[in-house]
């Protein structure tokens, strides 16, 4: 488990370094995850790395199995700031609702654009 966790943290560190050097355009963990995906895909047939791949997958599974525990600090933070939620609750709700609608709309339009560019509607 320690080897798998080390691999995960090394890729996150590499992502953070790249994100910092790029000016923070993309979050470091996202860059690290992309780097890890490319590396795992490129080296999946290298037998000497099979054990590392398996340990990383096992560690990822253990983290995902206990993901609920990671939400406890957020819940505690919400309970500690109930006065702010009472005071600004409507604004928070409006922003969450608006951002969800905008995200879904942009997602649909991007999907339609990609579908058209890839010739997906040619059959119809």
Description:
The radius of gyration is 21 Å and the shape is extended. The longest helix is centred in the C-terminal third of the chain and has 36 residues, at 82-117. The protein is mainly α. The protein has helices spanning 2-21, 28-42, 50-65, 72-80, 82-117. Helix content is 77%, strand content 0%. The chain folds into two domains: 1-65, no CATH class; 70-124.
Cα(first) to Cα(last) distance is 50 Å
Task: Give the amount of beta strand, in percent.
Answer: under 5%
| Poorly predicted runs | none
- Helix/strand-derived category reads mainly alpha
Total of DSSP H or I helical runs spanning 4+ residues: 5
What integer value in Å does the Rg equal? 21 Å
Shape: extended
Q: Mean of the pLDDT scores? A: 88
Taking the sheet with the most strands, its summary is: none
Query: What's the number of extended β-strand segments?
Result: 0
- Amount of helix: over 70%
The total domain count is: 2
Give me the strand/helix succession. HHHHH
Summarize the structure.
Pfam families: LrgA. The protein has 124 residues and is mainly α. 77% of the residues lie in helices and 0% in strands.
Secondary structure blueprint with pairings:
Layout: H1 2-21, H2 28-42, H3 50-65, H4 72-80, H5 82-117
Helix pairs in contact: 1-2, 1-3
